[in-house]
Amino acid sequence: MKRRDFLLGTSTLAISSLVTGCSSPQQASLRIRLLKDSIPAQLLNEFRQEFKQIGELDLTVEAQLISLFTSLQEKPKSQNWWSKLPLLAAREKLSSIADLVTLGDYWLVSAIEQKLIQPLDPTQLKQWEQLPPQYQRLVRRNLQGNIDLKGLVWGAPYRWGTTMIVYRRDKFKDEGLNPPQDWNDLWKEELRDRISLPDQPREVIGLTLKKINPQNSYNTPQLAKIPQLKSELKELDRQVKFYSDNTYLQPLILGDTWLAVGWSTDILPIIQRYPNMIGAVIPQSGTSLWADLWVRPAKANDNFSLARDWIDFGWQPEIAALFSRFGKAASPIFAGESLAELPKSIRSKKLLFPSPEVYQRSEFLLPLSEKAQQQYLNLWREIRFQGLGLGDRKSGGA
């Protein structure tokens, strides 16, 4: 499952000693590996002001979620000459392990199964009860990584977003077409060969299920019980110019496509750059949700106090409002609330916060059984490669 882990390639930026002053062995330090641009600078400034006693705030930024997941699999390496000195070697090994790492909710299953992360104790998190129940349930898993309401807590959600429809305002206007509002607009004849979709079976099959009936779930385990699903997918495939996870916005800007389906963190910055040309909508039938989490590496040190403070800090309502105002995604603290219930500073962020009705019809892509996963994969292959011998005419860019 891909999301923005497939952005612009891998790059790593280490930012150390962001807090004024030199650190000493007695001073605390907080080491975080996070996704690029997932934390607004204003939030870091607020954190530094509140936690001036920290000797070092060490941030390592990665451009891809898959790189962050891979970092959890890496074993600390020490090849310096002083590695032969036991005390210094132990200190170096300890300092190379992050206290917290960003992870997408999809990666929880693998991280838990491979024992790459350790559970969090929600009783130590002062703001845990501020988190909406849906997000508490999302991170409660059994040892196989599946949702379990009695399971351990394996992550702390700090931002979330949606799968959206993005479109060319000018093209729709010039052709006398109404702006898209829901998934069924993708099947309109006027958009034949003008659409790009994610190269993702869960996303495309899921949105088709929602088009058929908003009560259908993205996590439907038995696809055969939806008899019209295959024919709807075949018709949708005839509408599509290409499938892509990471090259769908440039063709839209160039006018090669008029409509695309993608992720809010990709789309919202483009709307800011081209507000008169590019529009977006969260489908009224409901859509898929995603969340980024703070997880604790399995070998992180036992001192959880600063990591706990960082998580709690982000869940404070005033900080969550700041996060949602300046960030590319919303804080989960306000998920599902109406615009009238939101703080005034973020009421204009309508594309970050779908209406409560639309939100209730939306859902996370949850783990499926192996049998159910195979159903999705088999149907996807049948639709994508129908009538073809080798390759796929619609992969990649335009």
TrEMBL record:
It comes from Floridaenema aerugineum BLCC-F46. It is found in: Periplasm. It comes from the Bacteria. Its main location: periplasm. Pfam families: SBP_bac_6. This is Extracellular solute-binding protein. Gene3D superfamilies: Periplasmic binding protein-like II (3.40.190.10). The keyword Transmembrane does not apply. InterPro entries: Sperm_putr-bd. The lineage of its organism: Bacteria, Bacillati, Cyanobacteriota, Cyanophyceae, Oscillatoriophycideae. PANTHER family: SPERMIDINE/PUTRESCINE-BINDING PERIPLASMIC PROTEIN, SPERMIDINE_PUTRESCINE-BINDING PERIPLASMIC PROTEIN. Keywords: Periplasm, Signal, Transport.
